[in-house]
């Protein structure tokens, strides 16, 4: 322990401030789109605050960005900037939202839900909200889905080693290209999926603005809609199209870049992609069976709603055509398991990711095989033919343990506040998985303390817990440092 403490290095303030400067400049650039949307909305009150926010971010970020000269960054520095990115991005949007009569706590909740692509909301009366506000929510989900850290790398970072560190915190693999080139490829894929999503939603019968908002939310697996009934009022064709988009976005984005060379095998050859389809089918089948058994609903409407919910839960999107609070407890339990597992690594979906479930199942299988094998037998853990290294196994178990701890502590807070156990657990799982489905507790009347708990869960889920823990870990900031760049 003493040797480990001696080798540890605290983050370098100058370098971190330089990275924050680049982040602020990126957020300033991203703020242009909602400003234009407000301008087209007849100079909405939101426009002036958004414009002022972008100007201030640019003015603050420009001098700070010059502090970082392209030196390599430590692992704790990469984790710190990732954690700070997902705290700062929603924080700077609180002031603009307060300007349109949204309470500060609800503005914070809405911003965190947007940037983390969760989709939970404490607001009501969406149909009466201004169009530029609805666009802002969807836009924040869109750039939150891509990953602020990855977007910063793609746009303005030039040093490959530092860029690699940032991208690794988002779960990306860098085996075939440099970090910046990899980020560019992911961005191109994400942009192409976005254009396809909006165009498909439009051709399915939605009005242009509705297609834009729902398309952005779908490709980000965010789930914000323009109605309190979510997507229940949309045409069936639009619901089907949005569900397909959610599935496409829950597949690892770097895999799409391989399609021109490898064809469909680039996707279907991956065990995690196959697991995604199996999980969606299993979840939807269980939901349909439970619904038909416990209600008078005909089988076809039950199957249709189950497919939408199954896709939404497994991809952690949050779209829904039915009232989740009215579902039987067994169906809610199925949804919780599905949301917690989530989609593929490197996608916009949340959850613990399917690859970690596959690793866990393979570990169990190897443990069973070991009981019948020779004492000298060497059993290697493999998933899809690839060897699973010990650090991957340790990382998966570490995340599962942290997840369980966050869920239990958050659930305990809800129970101490006298909230119903099943609904409380559902909200906590949904927030930590960045899923957005609600059992009815999240709303305007929720206690402020519980809103703060859910926002913390959303942040922990989006950065996979460790990054925020690093930000809160004292030795990250206090201790021996390398020479500043």
From TrEMBL:
Membrane-crossing residue ranges in chain numbering: 47-65, 77-98, 139-157, 187-211, 231-253, 273-292, 333-355, 392-414, 452-473
What GO cellular component entries does it have?
Answer: plasma membrane
Q: Where in the cell is it found?
A: Cell membrane
Q: Which UniProt keywords apply?
A: Cell membrane, Ion transport, Membrane, Transmembrane, Transmembrane helix, Transport
GO biological process, any: metal ion transport
Query: What Pfam family is a match for this entry?
Result: TrkH
Q: How does it sit in the membrane?
A: Multi-pass membrane protein
Alphabetical list of InterPro entries matching this protein: Cat_transpt
Instruction: Mention one GO molecular function.
Output: monoatomic cation transmembrane transporter activity
* Superkingdom per UniProt: Bacteria
What family does the entry list? Belongs to the TrkH potassium transport family.
- What is the name attached to this protein's record? TrkH family potassium uptake protein
């Amino acid at each position: 322990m003493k040797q480990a403490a001696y080798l540890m290095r605290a983050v370098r303030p100058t370098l971190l401030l330089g990275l924050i400067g680049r982040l602020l400049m990126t957020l300033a650039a991203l703020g242009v789109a909602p400003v234009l949307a407000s301008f087209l909305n007849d100079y909405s009150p939101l426009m002036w605050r958004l414009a002022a926010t972008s100007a201030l971010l640019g003015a603050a970020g420009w001098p700070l960005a010059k502090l970082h000269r392209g030196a390599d960054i430590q692992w704790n520095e990469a984790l710190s900037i990732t954690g700070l990115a997902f705290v700062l991005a929603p924080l700077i949007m609180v002031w603009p939202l307060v300007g349109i009569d949204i309470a500060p706590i609800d503005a914070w909740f809405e911003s965190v839900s947007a940037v983390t692509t969760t989709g939970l909301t404490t607001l009501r009366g969406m149909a009466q909200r201004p169009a530029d506000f609805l666009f802002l929510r969807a836009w924040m989900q869109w750039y939150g889905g891509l990953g602020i850290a990855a977007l910063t790398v793609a746009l303005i970072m030039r040093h490959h080693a530092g860029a690699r560190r940032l991208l690794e915190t988002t779960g990306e693999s860098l085996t075939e290209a440099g970090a910046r080139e990899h980020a560019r490829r992911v961005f191109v894929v994400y942009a192409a999926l976005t254009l396809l999503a909006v165009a498909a939603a439009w051709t399915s019968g939605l009005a242009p603005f509705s297609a834009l908002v729902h398309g952005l939310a779908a490709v980000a697996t965010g789930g914000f809609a323009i109605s309190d009934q979510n997507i229940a009022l949309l045409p069936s064709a639009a619901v089907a199209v949005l569900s397909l988009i959610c599935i496409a976005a829950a597949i690892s984005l770097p895999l799409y870049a391989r399609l021109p060379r490898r064809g469909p095998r680039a996707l279907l050859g991956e065990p995690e992609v196959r697991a995604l389809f199996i999980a969606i089918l299993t979840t939807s089948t269980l939901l349909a069976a439970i619904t038909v058994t416990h209600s008078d609903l005909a089988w076809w409407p039950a199957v249709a709603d189950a497919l939408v919910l199954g896709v939404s839960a497994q991809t952690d999107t949050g779209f829904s055509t039915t009232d989740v609070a009215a579902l039987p407890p067994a169906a809610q339990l199925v949804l919780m398991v599905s949301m917690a597992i989530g989609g593929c690594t490197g996608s916009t979906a949340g959850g613990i990711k399917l690859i970690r479930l596959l690793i866990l199942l393979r570990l169990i299988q190897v443990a069973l095989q070991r009981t019948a094998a020779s004492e000298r037998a060497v059993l290697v853990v493999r998933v899809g033919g690839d060897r699973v290294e010990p650090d991957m196994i340790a990382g998966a178990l570490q995340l599962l343990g942290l997840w369980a701890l966050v869920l239990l502590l958050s659930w305990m807070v809800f129970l101490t506040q006298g909230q119903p156990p099943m609904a409380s657990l559902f909200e906590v799982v949904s927030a930590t998985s960045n899923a957005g489905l609600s059992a009815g507790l999240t709303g305007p009347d929720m206690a402020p303390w519980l809103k703060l708990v859910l926002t913390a869960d959303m942040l922990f889920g989006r950065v996979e817990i460790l990054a925020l823990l690093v930000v809160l870990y004292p030795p990250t900031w206090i201790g021996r440092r390398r020479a500043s760049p």
